[in-house]
Input
Amino acid sequence: MRWFVISCVGFLVFLWAQIFPGIAAVADPSANPRVLDRASARNLALAAAADRFDVAATDVVKLDLTHFSDGDAVGYFSKRKLSDEYDRSWEESFPTDVYRADLKLVTGDWLQLSLHMKSGKLVAWKRLESSGGVAAGAKDKASRVREAWAELGRWGYSESDWELADPSAADGSTVFQSRKPPLGEARLQLAVKPGEQLVYRFSLPQAYTDYIEHQQRLATRMSTIGYVLPEIVLFVLAIVYASSYSRHTSFKRGWFLALLFFVLYVCFTLNMKAGFRSKSETGLPVNEHGVQSLIVVNAVILGATALLTYFAAVGGDGLWRSMGRKLWPRWQEADYGFKVVRSMTQGYALAFVVLGAQSVILLALEPLLGSFVSSDASQSSYNLTYPWLMPVIAWCAGLSEELLYRLFGIGLFRRWLTGAARLLLRREPSRRTAAILTFAAMIPPSVIWSFGHVGYPIYPVYTRVIELTVLGLLFGWFMLRFGLMTAIFAHVTLDAVLVGSQLLFDGLPYDAYSGLFSFAMPALAGAAIWLLHRGSAGGGRARTAQPGN
Output
């Protein structure tokens, strides 16, 4: 009953902090229309090419559609609490997020069209000739400015709303600035090259852009020192301890979960090809080889992570069993299916505890640290070929991270700390001392885990370190109190609820069904495992390696 009450409180806090604001934003479909699906956006891009540039569909060799987001502008408006004012003043004609269609023409030229993601309105364009474009210095400055003003008029911009800011920018464009009041210190600008481009941009204060650059450099250093290097060390240690403690466990442990992690994550990676394009390309032409290279590199990294997950599973199970703790049941046990269902139900309850804790932490850090959120289109569901596959990412994180950071990581540090205490005291540490050392053992793997998430667009970057270190301690305590499978289900359910909520609010067709499936996915998996175990030959008497080992 106590856990049920705590879980309900956490769920209500999560609804209040993260769900209700989103519901209010999408409650009125007429005021907040749905986002276009990718097929509709492609069709509108072809229609705009034909209508505004006299480019027939038959003239298009290929069309790459990508969701792009101006993360710096999103972050600035979020930091200055100007997001609502931006939505009222600028969003309709100058959105921070667009569908960008890159059209390769039969002539070898490229046409880049940026569309509003809800209305489909053409908001910016650029074209590049196969020869490299028109030379910028062919005309005198006065002529270029007159032609730029004329270009603005042809595209419906009123001369009274704009003023000349830079008659000859570095890229050869003429830059105009809106006469309307800025949002904070952000000014709206248009960069015009007649016949070549008409694009808008947000001129942000230098102090803010310097801050973002500093934070990104800091995130890179923190990720390298606090995550990548420890991961390499953990890889070596996992192999060593898997071999050293093999008499307490089996090398059959974890192979299926590691393989499942790899297969699901590779599928997810292939599904986000446009997301890689949004991170690797900002101009034309699109470098498909670069995108393919990123996918291959990620697949190699995932392969290494799968191996690390496997050895961490074997080594972690061996460590805990050598210390007299059986945190991870085996498929061969007669009540394995029952334990899975129990872990699944406990996982849902504990996930809501974590969601409530996460909401409180983030709400507290916003005024304490000045935390704010930017955007990253590479992680966007709009850049997924099949958005309904997005929930599988919850299993990837839940399986690998719980096996590595909780089962192996905590077991490793606990073994070291209790061993050191035994040497110093010349006896076994007391129960209270062992409990303190176990808590201390949860801290290093939680910190390493948190450093792996500093690349997310949340600033300052150490916001996530604080948040996830606390959540890591919760997951560690769940594992010690309820077992590894409960911690895995809690982690998977946490991510599934967050992904499902995102899908519900993203506004794509059928995303509501995908979101509901995401919520139910852990329960469906638990029920499926229970049925498989119940129907397996010999049930709990089976001795061969089976899924879940």
Observations:
- DSSP finds 15 helices and ten strands in the chain.
